[in-house]
Amino acid sequence: LVGELGIGGAADPEFSYQYALLLLRAGRPREAAAILERVPPGGERERTLRMNLAEAWRRLGSFDDAETVLRGLLGGGDDDAVRLRLGRVLFSAKRFEEALDLFGALPPTAESMDRVAMCHHALGDNEAALAWSLRANEAAPDEPIYLVNLAVIRAARGELAIAGDLLRRALEIDPENATAAYNLEQLERATDEMRRRVKGVVPRRGMR
After folding, report:
1. Count of other CB atoms within 10 angstroms of residue 69
2. Single pTM value for the model
3. Cβ contact 99:119 at 8 Å
């Protein structure tokens, strides 16, 4: 499609850039990256273009390329935004401790606190994860992704009923949220399986 339309060259850089962003939002990072790599550098959008290219590479699993681009942008005056994106790259690459260091040094926004929570969760510290996730949800109580992540942490702690309520709340806010719907389905299956197992257990009689 890109080749057929001739998109991505220098003829109309702004159109190419906006089209690449649409592709990225539509879950087509490979096509988005191909266009962003061909948009001429320079202008006010240069840093944003590079950050979006790094995001496309992150989604493609090209973590080293994404990290190189973002580290090259540090020191340009918007370091918090760059570090947030760099932390996402490191998290996706399962470099959780490094990601935690980056997220933890950012101003405490809902997003950065949620990212800190998920780093702790990935590292197996669900006590710290819960504390940070609660802070994220307090800062943005109606954001479905933070509710979903809190549900994941609650479920990991064995608090399945609370996790289910959180996922249902996320779906009330965003009925089309596929992540919340999938997690709720898996949680309900696990709960049903546990109930069947408990029902099938026959108590052992004490020895006389």
Report:
1. 22
2. 0.83
3. yes
